Fold each of these.
Amino acid sequence: MKIDSLRIQLLCWLLLPLAGIAALNIWLTYHSADHVADTITDRTLIASARSIAEQTAVTQGVIDVQVPPAALEMFNTGDADHVYYRVESHHGRLLAGYPDLPLPPQLPPTMRPAYYTGEYRDLPLHLVAISQPVVGAGAASPITVVVGVTLNSHDVMLRDLWTGAVGQQLALLLGAALLAMIGLNRGLAPLLRLRKAVLRRRSDELVAFDPQAVQRELRPLTEALNQYMKRVEQQMAAQRRFVGNAAHQLKTPLTLLSTQATYALRTADAAERQETLQALQANTRQTSRLANQLLILARAEPGSRRPRHELIDLAAAARQVLEQQADRAVQLGLDLSLTEPDEPALVTGDGMMIREMVVNLVDNALRYTPAGGAVAVSVGRRDQICVLRVADSGPGIPPAERERVFERFYRVADNAGEGSGLGLAIVREICLAAGGAVRLLDPPEGRGTLVEVTLPATAAAADGRTGRG
Ligand SMILES: Nc1ncnc2c1ncn2[C@@H]1O[C@H](COP(=O)(O)OP(=O)(O)OP(=O)(O)O)[C@@H](O)[C@H]1O
Ligand SMILES: [Mg+2]
């Protein structure tokens, strides 16, 4: 069983060993109480036996045993104990008492008591036997005096001594548990307050928590929480900026569309109307492309699409894109070519997104390269990396702009062509999601643009299946 309550865990660590110690203590106390009760019983037994022995004397040649009442009354503690005695001559002749009271296994030497236990009339007894010389008794001396007592008083004594100790131990344990609970509650209070504060917050309330409000051990938690909120805050700000920009970008062409439509409806001149409608059509195409780019960027963002791990042949993906763009290249008067690697360039990722990445790179090259130029796409392998390069002979991107063009909605200032400034942002987002990178390299011969995408290569599967569709 897994205990996930900190309170229970700490209490267990504290109270279980304490309970173990208390149990050991109770066991030890029982034995020492038993020993004390034994000693007291033995002392009373020997006192009783001695007083019987001392009252024994020879009167007119006969051994006379006088049992003094005090010798038996000293056992009268109100616990209804039975006392038995037996006095015998040296030859084993019964002089007084109970003839079948058990004797010790070995008769004790003179003046030395022998303590033992036995059973008499079905009751357990503690007994003592002593040997006592009697002056004038001749061969009958020394006599043996045995006194035995039932265990009632002994057991009551043991119980009293022991239960007191047990009570103390339990009270101590209870006290420790109570104090531990209070201590834990006090110790956990700042953490619970922090929890309450987190739960009470609105989802957009991302102000840092005060790390000093909790104990030193918990500060890393508050700091981690604060760092996390900071990241969320930054993310939220970026999202707000993006939505604002997107709305702005959509608003301009939509306003234009509305103006163009109004103008087309108003004008009486057929040629003018035709021209306006054509402009409106181009504008619609652009706006729809913008919406499409926005959609793809949203999909490329981490967490927006279920992560896919398809095996993709990068050369096949490039070939597919180039086939789609071939007619356009011819119309634009551009030479579009593809160089494929000898060995397969396999990568793992989202097939649709990887193709979308190639589309954006080829689209840029075709869009910004003047007629008569060339666009060369190449796919290759460098150790464990697949490389896709798109080179064109166009105007190029100034080195100072090479980082900024990857920003969302950023377009180079003197760029006359159509576009929303999202293409390279989409490319970078897709590269990052696939564990790769994209950068702009210095073009060979100093002119044109060279974009390089690097993606981690995947070893070819045994059956050679690749995701192309
Ligand atoms: N091959 C290229 N040659 C010259 N300039 C380029 C090339 N590729 C990108 N650029 C410059 O970088 C800018 C950003 O490119 P990006 O693809 O992100 O946006 P876009 O092409 O303007 O719009 P779209 O979202 O429609 O692709 C472009 O506006 C352009 O100025
Ligand atoms: Mg573009």
Amino acid sequence: MKAAVLHEIGGVPRYEDFPDPVPGEGEVLIDVKAVAVENVDKAIAAGTHYTSAGFTGRLPAIPAFDGVGALPDGTLVGFGNPRLPYGALAQRTVVPAGSYAPVPEDVDPAVVTVLASAITGMAIRTAAGFVPGETVLVQGATGVAGRLAVQVARLLGAGRIVATGRDDTQLREVRELGADAVINTAVPDDVLARAFADARGDGYDVVLDYLWGRPTEVLLGTLVPESFGFGRPTRIVQVGESAAPALNLPADALRTSGVEIYGAAKGLDAATMGEAYGQVVAWTRAGELVFGVERVPLSGIETAWQRTDLKGRRLVVLP
Ligand SMILES: NC(=O)c1ccc[n+]([C@@H]2O[C@H](COP(=O)([O-])OP(=O)(O)OC[C@H]3O[C@@H](n4cnc5c(N)ncnc54)[C@H](OP(=O)(O)O)[C@@H]3O)[C@@H](O)[C@H]2O)c1
């Protein structure tokens, strides 16, 4: 079969022949239809993700750990967890029985495969207990997941949505998706701090953070009250690390602000995940959740893997 094959850590996958997977006991063959290539796939291949060791220890191997495909009986499913060295970026892959779930047959597989990113937007509710009317700040709103999160916040009934990015043209697009105010983070710290303070209205209730690093350090500084009193705590949901994988967290930023920090996985189980997934599918069918998809054939993987011009569109590979 044809596959995208990674030969060295940090390299670029090449389109080439690879032996067909043969399912063992308790495994199922998947005929791959669409795969969204995300930052996490590149981080695993680069050896910089916490799950990298298993993958990079099996080279040559096929990147990407989930996608949309068909079971041998033709049922369309979202699948995950392929058996290494097999990955999703191939004509066929092999996964443990049960490591898949049916997906709607009436929605384009290339669209379905992007919806996992929309579920991160639902973390304002599943992780942070968002209720309608609250103010939501989306850090990193010009990316694919951030643009979806702005729309999810609006659809869930946010009272005010503030969105950050580092490119004014893209920030204008984010405003059209539903942000009430936008902030460009590519400014000196004191200017950024003032912008966070000016845009917060009555205060940020929930922050959905795809950036971490400096923008969030500056934000935390603005949450520290200037006098003793009872503040309204901000709940920060950590989802991504596009700006940096770590940040400096001063003691007073926690002690006096009452800030609460959660991981995006908090509150997720099969039931809440199923509910979140059903909701984003319903919004997508109704045309209420929009996003850009850049479709490329598997044969174009070498060029596509290195693209940096996607500006909020998800790269989807079609084997
Ligand atoms: N936990 C999950 O399930 C999950 C799911 C999806 C994504 N994520 C994570 O969330 C993050 C965003 O994912 P994505 O798919 O939306 O990525 P994306 O489409 O590539 O967008 C990245 C975003 O981060 C911004 N950015 C990149 N480098 C930056 C820097 N040094 N300083 C400030 N901003 C920077 C980009 O701004 P420009 O537009 O100006 O480049 C853009 O807004 C990633 O860390 C990803 O791994 C997590």
